[in-house]
């Protein structure tokens, strides 16, 4: 049964392999950033922001790699989680940039990268979704 739901890279078109590789790389970079923040700042290291944002960003330490794992084993669920993460993280980061850092998007190159990654993800997930088909969206 598990073999029916595991992403078999050989069965997917090259475009899906490329897109998933980019998604996974983006979430891997994000995971490394959050782990680094916790390593140097301790649990809930984002003390400059409200507790809810601090908890959210800390939770991304687990959610970002979960997105990678789901992309491998349950591609549709992985794409859904990836979109949810980016659809929530980008607005939160924009808000904090303006409200707490008294800064703008132009001076935060990391935010630029995140927005570009989000746009790429939002634009390409529909393509990957169709190409993956219904193979992994059902268990059993």
Number of strands: 0
Q: What number of structural domains do the residues give?
A: 1
Question: Roughly how much helix do the residues carry, as a percent range?
Answer: over 70%
Structure class:
mainly alpha
Strand content: under 5%
Please mark out the parts with pLDDT under 50 across 5 or more consecutive residues, or reply none. 136-140
Q: Count the helices. How many?
A: 5
**Elements, N to C (H/E):** HHHHH
Question: How would you summarize this macromolecular structure in one to three sentences?
Answer:
By secondary structure, the chain is mainly α.
How do the helices and strands line up, and which of them pair or pack?
Blueprint: H1 2-5, H2 14-41, H3 51-73, H4 75-99, H5 109-132
Could you please describe the fold and organization of this structure?
There is one protein chain. This protein is mostly helical and 140 residues long. The chain has one domain. It is built from 5 helices and no strands. It has helices at 2-5, 14-41, 51-73, 75-99, 109-132. Helix 2 runs antiparallel to helix 5. The longest helix has 28 residues, at 14-41. The chain is globular.
Salient structural properties:
140 residues, mainly alpha, 5 helices, 0% strand
